[in-house]
Amino acid sequence: MSAAAQVLSQFQATGVETCFHDRHIEPQIYAGLDGKNWSLKDYEARGGYQALRKILGKDGGEGLTQDQVIATVKESGLRGRGGAGFPTGLKWSFMPRQFPGQKYLACNSDEGEPGTCKDRDILMYNPHIVIEGMIIGGYAMGINVGYNYIHGEIFQVYERFEAALEEARAAGYLGDNILGSNFSFQLHAHHGFGAYICGEETALLESLEGKKGQPRFKPPFPASFGLYGKPTTINNTETFAAVPWIIRNGGAAYLACGKPNNGGTKIFSVSGDVERPGNYEIPLGTPFATLLELAGGVRKGRQLKAVIPGGSSSPVLPASIIMECTMDYDSIAKAGSMLGSGAVIVMDDSRCMVESLKRLSYFYMHESCGQCTPCREGTGWLWRLVDRIHRGDGRASDMDVLDNVAANIMGRTICALGDAAAMPVRAMLKHYRHEFAAMIRTPNPQGAGSA
Amino acid sequence: MITEATKARFAREVAKYPAEQKQSAVMACLAIVQQEQGYVSQESEAEIAAYLGMPEIAVHEVTTFYNMYNQQPVGKYKLNVCTNLPCLLRDGGKALEHLEHKLGIAAGETTQDGMFTLQQCECLGACADAPVMLVNDRNMCSFMSTDKLDQLVEGLRAAEGQA
Questions:
Q1: Helix (H) or strand (E) holding A401
Q2: Predicted local confidence at residue A449, as pLDDT
Q3: What is the per-residue pLDDT across A316-337, written as a single tens digit (0 to 9) for each?
């Protein structure tokens, strides 16, 4: 290692603070990890690749049919962990299995939603669980080629995943005639290089094809026209990582450890004003208050002000509302926000909501791919308005203009980035209008008029 | 000039995709060139285009679309400090300011000795490690308090024989 590499290695994350803190509740994906036991042998010792053996009938049993695997995933209540929460078994059933040509499986590890850092720890410290989940998905949907699209900024994770792929190939878990069966599956890693939009599934496909990551119109959906125009299923990293446990223990057992319609455990990335930021894997339906306690509570000497519960795109919830919520798709939706990717951004009573929104609005302006006018232009308007208010140059009409611009972006773009930019604005205005009003000085007669 | 050794790295990426879809490897090839040469020059784009059998402009579209490609030469160490909200709440903004003072440059600039380029960046996907910083695209540095930032800058200077 060069001297410079040695210097840099001192600052590399160890996972101790974010993953190996032993503060999970009934973990499945993060269970038993210590940072050193990521390799194939260790994964097998934890029961790894048993689910694959089970479906292929290589564990002494009869094996599972494609339909049985999909039925098990449906029964589990597993919902997409990337943000949308779409039922995974249902998505898998949309794949036209009998399609005669090539079909593809894609894993979305382009984890760039501000606040989210769970897939990074899965891929770094337990990469084989994702590989096994993808092989099982490929088997269930009759797909024999897959790609894992990994966020370009986490290059060490990409290298780790490639190393794990080599191990899996050498052991006969990947490649032709897996474990002597007639099922073959090839899996490769692909890295991004800095574009938030590629987390959107059709932008991800464009990027995989070696193009600008600009989202496609839907329909056609990827299940009929995906990678290289072929039927494609795309799931999030954590979704695939949940699959081996479900196959080993059954769909009912998975559902039972969450709550109805919200099966299983979920990893929450807790960031911001807490004593112990990190990833916490807990059963869906766990009270928010419990999660906050696991994360060490609000920063010492401070009170909880607000929480963005599902990544930067999800509407902010004031303390009084979030403290009554349980952490699952239905409870957070009922409270007026989204569970999203499970990125919980905690803000204490010292925080200025105008400044917070300003930074988020800058982000969406920066990351808009430029394809749709309402988003490309509108995100700039949003940032300039919030920036103006924050600088003390706001006008009395600005709050209404902000809300109007946000409302006119929503639903008028090809992909959800426009909505993602608009939702935080509308929620901040809804819950913290007084903070914006307080920053808007007495109207200047010469400054009045159009924005 | 792209060497045979570099082309061998390209070939490894191209092999991941169907034979008629070599273009899929363009992001990886550009990243390899950047790692070896520090940035993506127009000549490199042309050579990659020829290697992958795609129009030069299609390569340039990729270089310009993705944030991490350097379209101009940068310092020996490119420091990208995340200032997105989760990092901002944990002193990501202060980390950037500290480096501006320490290096005597503003974000977006390169030190006169060509050693450091400092940039603000968007979410690196390591929010619980805030403040976080990416060095030369491939090295994530976590929990970068001002002390650690000082250690990093001084450590790299020492490694380069400039202590």
A1: helix A398-409
A2: 45
A3: 999 999 999 999 999 999 999 9
Partner-chain contact B144 A11, CB within 8 Å: yes
Candidate from B21, B24, B159 with C-beta closest to A7: B159
Alpha-carbon separation of residue A132 from A105, A171, A178, B105 (angstroms)? 13, 12, 12, 48
Residues in A closer than 8 angstroms to B63, CB to CB, are none
Test B27 with A210 for CB contact under 8 angstroms. Answer: yes
Residues in CB range of A205: below 8 A, 6 or more apart? A106, A216, A222, A226, A227, A232, A234
Å between B5 CA and nearest CA of chain A: 19
Of all residues in chain B, the one with the smallest CA distance to A270 is B128
Q: Of B46, B38, B48, B96, whose CA–CA distance to B69 is shortest?
A: B38
* Residues of A with Cβ-Cβ distance to B148 under 8 angstroms: 11
* pLDDT value of residue B162: 66
pLDDT score at A159: 97
Residue B114 has pLDDT above 50, yes or no: yes
Counting every residue written for chain A, the total comes to: 451
Cα–Cα distance between B7 and B13 in angstroms, integer? 10
Predicted complex ipTM exceeds 0.90:
yes
The reported pTM is 0.96
Instruction: Identify whether the C-beta of residue A332 lies closer than 8 Å to the C-beta of residue A284.
Output: no
Q: How many CB pairs below 8 A link A and B?
A: 201
Model confidence pLDDT, tens digit, residues A202-211: 999 999 999 9
Cβ neighbours of B90 in A, within 8 Å: 271-272, 277
Tell me which residues of chain A have a pLDDT lower than 70.
Answer: 442-451
C-alpha A100 chain-centroid distance: 32
A234: left (phi over 0), alpha (psi -120 to 50) or beta: beta
User: Cis peptide leading into A220, omega within 30 of 0?
Assistant: yes
Q: Which of residues 26-45 of B touch A (CB under 8 A)?
A: 26-28, 30-31
C-alpha distances out from residue A42 to A53, A188, A222, A296, Å: 17, 22, 35, 30
Instruction: Give B26-69 pLDDT, tens digit per residue.
Output: 999 999 999 999 999 999 999 999 999 999 999 999 999 999 99
Q: Which residues of B touch A209 (CB under 8 A)?
A: 21, 23-24
Instruction: With CA atoms as reference, report the closest residue to B83 among A360, A318, A46.
Output: A360
Q: For residue range A76-116, list pLDDT tens digits in order.
A: 999 999 988 999 999 999 999 988 899 999 999 999 999 99
Taken as a whole, chain B contains a residue count of: 163
